Amino acid sequence: MNRKIGFGIIGCGVIADWHIRGIENAQYAKLVAVCDANETKARNLGEKKKVDYYTKMEEMLKRQDLDVICICTPSSLHPEQAVLAANAGKHIITEKPMAITLEKADEMINACKKNRVKLATIFQRRVTEPFASIKKAFENNELGKLILGDCCLKYYRGQAYYDSAGWRGTWKFDGGGALMNQGIHMIDILQWLMGDVEEVFSYSKTLARKIEVEDTSVSVLNFKNGAVGIIECATSVFPSTIPHRLEVHGEKGSILFEGEGVKRWVTGGPDGEPVEKVGNIENTGKSITSPTDISDAGHRIQIQDMVEAIKENRDPMVTGEEGRKALEIILAIYKSSKTGMPVKLPLK
Questions:
Q1: Which of the residues 54, 63, 88, 140 has an alpha carbon 20 to 30 A from that of 245?
Q2: Residue 221 sits in which domain range?
Q3: CB 259 within 8 A of CB 283
Q4: Residue 271 class from Cβ within 10 Å (0-12 exposed, 13-18 middle, 19+ buried)?
Q5: CA of 76: how far to CAs of 135, 168, 173, 281, in Å?
Q6: 147 and 61: one domain?
Q7: 140 and 265 share a domain?
Q8: Residue 80 shares a structural domain with residue 46
């Protein structure tokens, strides 16, 4: 395939800009169309980017120059749109969470396999630093036997945030609250580094916002490798400047990530004494206060990777099967909170 790979956007909201910048900066990629059920949004973005716009996805999918669909709609809409795209022979990049139930996630995965198209899930932190280097350290067993893996995700989203769109904070469209919408990225990183989760026990509550879903959650994890951990996640914590943290500990070392940087990276030296691999670095204390604070570097990498995956006929960096893992943990947390009992994975 010598021509440029044609990309289309479904959902012309905030996150669409991240995908468009990724497409515009990718080699051998081209934005060819955008689509939104809201004609004003679709027209405005189409005219801004000088591409065709649609209000019906089915019409956009008829384009012969369209190879990849970027799904940037509310979470509950992802599966139906992905299946439509797959049946039309289009490859798919979906925002997180890929679905709000495992059954729907599996429908997406199976439709893509049946139609021999590629499915990528946006988990941009996996492909950017420092987590790409941290993953290599885990693969090289630099921390030794894993002991503890914790993430503390204390975010602030005011009532105005939830009131700004009718789907926010609902089970039907958002699929959950702080965990499903804000916490899923770092939960994905935690399980990516520490390994599969065997069991969870959780308290998840709605304490500060007028929404259906949780704004505060605390969970205890038991990993299959014997390690244990904790997930604290909230959108109810004031002020908005508290940085999130992820801490992983093994018998031979620890890595502490805070805000947007590594705070400490310590491993045992040849004499058994601790060696600081990385000290405090710039942006360590930075917090994510709104969706627009997220860097687009990961989207650029994953979109370029999809172009190369198509050309090389290989899987993308973060497949649908990988995207499913964090979703399953969150759904297990919800089940535990509802039943008041520990929940084992995989879910049945």
A1: 140
A2: 128-289+327-344
A3: yes
A4: exposed
A5: 30, 11, 5, 38
A6: no
A7: yes
A8: yes
Identify the CATH number of the domain in which residue 186 sits: 3.30.360.10
Give CA separation, 130 vs 135, 138, 157, 258, 337, in Å: 9, 13, 26, 11, 32
- Number of domains present in the structure of the chain: 2
Give the integer Cα–Cα distance in Å for 181 and 183.
6
Adjacent-strand bridge partners of 231: 151, 219
Summarize pLDDT for 258-316 with one digit per residue, the tens. 998 999 999 988 888 889 987 544 444 444 444 445 678 999 999 999 999 999 999 99
The HSE-up count of residue 49 (CA atoms within 13 Å, CB side) is 25
Give the CA distances from residue 330 to residues 101, 218, 257, 343, in Å, rounded to whole numbers and listed in that order. Answer: 10, 11, 21, 11
User: Is 247 found in the same domain as 177?
Assistant: yes
Q: What is the pLDDT of residues 158-213, one digit of tens each?
A: 999 999 989 999 999 999 999 999 999 999 999 999 999 999 999 999 999 999 99
